[in-house]
Specification:
280 residues, alpha+beta, four-stranded antiparallel β-sheet, 52% helix, disordered N terminus
């Protein structure tokens, strides 16, 4: 196994940013607030305050998300003014639902993305590389990226939405190289970095699950307070770790354990958290 696949010690989980928590809130609860998914600013401030974000930080984060085209102002200037996900953000959230709440079942086949971008459009080359990396692709060679085949539909959808399909060819198949596939996978992905993300998630949220496992009642506010940060931390992991076949991973791979922790918290806390969010 390549050197970078060796176990890494747990690292401290990064403190969630206000903007990230707002997007996580819309993904978990905000789209059901109203017909258009609009949430009054005052409600956002109260709900984010529950997880430790102060009002100025909420307002600043909302402004940044609006500038990025992810939130749109609804009924500006009125007492019920609020913000809703933009069409682009809704699509991102819908795509995220399929990735975040699904347990991938790799079939052993691979998806290759091969791209060629003219030098005159090199900015598109950068966008392509960064987008494929964010989808969970590993880098097999310059201009050649690889992912488990179950990511094909999301990849097609994403590349079409970004108008990048003229530059990319997609192929499906098996690995027939001269080195064992596990060694190739350790070159294509930084397994040590991915494992460190899993361990950071476990260090932060496994104790939370242990505490809840001893509780019979699930108070809505406490459930919301623990679930939203757990979801915010978890939602990045299915992109960093795209569901690689377990026989190709190190024996002490922490991914299955972190998935069990998240889905246990999800099953225990999400609905009670929704009760609190709806009542604020």
């Amino acid at each position: 196994m390549a050197e970078h696949s060796s176990p890494s010690p747990p690292t401290a989980a990064p403190r969630p940013s206000p903007g990230s928590l707002i997007l996580t809130f819309y993904g978990a609860y905000g789209r059901g607030f109203s017909r258009d998914g609009s949430v009054p600013v005052a409600t956002l401030i109260r709900l984010l305050g529950t997880v430790g974000v102060d009002p100025p930080s909420v307002r600043s984060a909302v402004s940044r998300l609006k500038r990025r085209g992810l939130l749109t102002a609804e009924r500006p200037g009125s007492k019920s003014a609020g913000y809703a996900p933009s069409p682009a953000a809704r699509q991102l959230l819908d795509d995220g639902d399929r990735r975040i709440y699904a347990r991938p079942r790799p079939d052993g086949n691979w998806l290759l993305a091969v791209f060629s971008v003219p030098e005159s459009e090199r900015q598109r080359r950068h966008v392509l590389r960064s987008r494929l990396a964010r989808l969970g692709f590993g880098n097999a060679a310059p201009g050649i990226w690889i992912a488990p085949s179950h990511l094909e539909e999301e990849t097609r959808h994403t590349l079409a939405r970004l108008e990048l399909t003229p530059y990319v060819d997609l192929f499906r198949g098996s690995h027939a190289g001269f080195e064992p596939t596990a060694e190739a996978v350790a070159r294509w992905w930084d397994l040590a970095a991915i494992a460190a993300q899993h361990r950071a998630f476990l260090a932060a949220h496994e104790p939370v699950l242990r505490t809840w496992s001893r509780r019979r009642r699930v108070p809505p506010e406490a459930a919301y307070r623990d679930y939203l940060p757990a979801l915010d931390a978890w939602r990045r992991l299915p992109y960093a770790d795209p569901g690689l076949p377990s026989p190709l991973l190190p024996e002490d791979w922490p991914g299955e354990r972190s998935a069990k922790v998240f889905f246990a918290l999800h099953g225990k806390l999400r609905d009670a958290g929704a009760e609190f969010a709806a009542a604020v």
